[in-house]
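Hey forum,

I'm writing up a methods section and want to include a predicted complex as supplementary material. The small molecule is zinc ion. I've pasted the protein sequence and the SMILES. Can someone with a working setup run it? I'll credit the forum in the acknowledgements.
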Amino acid sequence: MTDVKFGTLAPIRYMAPDFDNTMVSYKVYGTILIEQDVEDAFKERIKSEVLSMIPIVFSEFHAREVKCLELPAMCSEMSKKLTERLREIDRKCNVNVGGVVMDEESKKIIEEKQRAKIIADNPAIAQVEQIRAMQAAGSVNRPKFCPNCGTPVGPTGKFCGNCGSPLGV
Ligand SMILES: [Zn+2]
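Reply by user p_vandermeer:
Happy to help. Structure tokens for the complex are below, copy them as they are.
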């Protein structure tokens, strides 16, 4: 019995069907169990076979429109698929996928898109976001009179035209 650990060196790319085919990246790692003692050269060959199969399995998932957030939960299905493919090629090997992990950069992109989706689907949140954006731009809640001298102030300009006090947001 031999254990061969494997892990993707380059990120595996996935076009997330649930986020307009946004490109996200994963690391995949696990172990290949071989039911006999084998030479190192064989281990390396089996390992590279498995690594080359992972993008193919990912493209099958994409064809089925598997959501990007569901991929990490599909270790056992991946294990099964990789084992089947490997057995077409060689002896009694079992692939055990230990983890399918989205990289940090992709997580941030997806979180941002999730947030945008929630806002788009919810008019009340959209309104709050809009008000916040306007506040940030200084067009809402700004004083109509200078807080220092009381002179009426216009909708633009950061300082009072009379005394020069900052008008804030
Ligand atoms: Zn003033």
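Some notes you might quote in the supplement: The first helix runs from residue 40 to 63. The chain has two domains: 2-102, 107-151.
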